[in-house]
Amino acid sequence: MLAMLIIGLALAAAAPPPASTHAGWVKRAEGPVLGGELGSIFDVNVLREQGTFRLWFSWRARKSLALVESADGIHWGPPVLVLGPNPASGWEDDINRPAVLKRGETYHLWYTAQARGKSSLGYATSRDGITWTRQSERPVLVAEQRWEKVAVMCPHVLWDEDARLYRMWYSGGAQREPDAIGYATSADGRTWSKDAANPIFQAERANPWEAAKVSGAQVVRLGDAYVMFYIGFADPHHARIGLARSADGVHDWQRHGANPIIAPTRRGWDGDAVYKPFALYDGTRWLLWYNGRRGKLEQIGLAMHEGEDLGF
């Protein structure tokens, strides 16, 4: 019996760790691309303009949004603070989780504002992506439906030229980590109509890795469908990244058969959780930035996928 136990322990020790990526995704082996001396940073939004990557991120120590730029999406310049808290407003003690959209010559920003145990969404515009002007003294989206509890956060916005509408996917629920994903539309970016079917995407209880919560959606138009990169939570402290697809971006979501596509690397810098994906297709491959956490430190990592076909 003792010999069998020893052999079993030896086999377990020799077994390779569970794969941290699936469906063709590969993490950058060198570790985080942004973090280190900045402390915890999280929830990014990336645009590529004239060969330059521009990445807006949430900077926990500053309770603010900052911007960095890069030629390759890996090596980033120094951060510039672009939008800070406004405690006098009563709802913007902490600013984070940006959604940046450029339409014409104007940058549009929807951001999460937190105060007094609640989260809501604000709206600002800019001519350069650096200097922002708030467009409302009050939140443009607040938690008001039962499923939203005390928080709406993590916006992602696309402009639909045919419908002449902004389309927003957002997360709602608990303040610590929201519970599900909702959808809203707006003609002007300020006044939003929430979808009657909200929440449009909820945790799949049959999948242990996302049985507790889903949040942090990024939605991309791909061919004649929409794909959603999202966070799935096994519990509030352990998260992975999944992928789903819908014909209209609202209804009948089909989860990827290889989910989760990105998971923590055991004993790695992202060993406890991987959060908030943001992906861009550069013409030959997908680049996906995400925040990984080990202990209390969150940093930004990068995963890549060759080719446009995501394998649905």
Number of strands: 20
Count of structural domains: 1
Structural class: mainly beta
The CATH level-2 architecture is identified as 5 Propeller
State the helicity in percent bands. Answer: under 10%
How big is the Rg?
19 Å
Biggest pleated-sheet summary: 4 strands, antiparallel
Report the sheet-strand fraction. Answer: over 45%
Total number of helical segments?
1
Kindly identify the CATH topology: Tachylectin-2, Chain A
Unreliable parts: 1-16
Question: What is the CA-CA span between the terminal residues?
Answer: 47 Å
Q: What is the CATH C-level name?
A: Mainly Beta
Give the CATH H-level superfamily.
Glycosyl hydrolase domain, family 43
Main β-sheet, spatial strand arrangement: 1-20-19-18
Shape: globular
Q: Which series of helices and strands comes N to C?
A: HEEEEEEEEEEEEEEEEEEEE
Mean pLDDT: 94
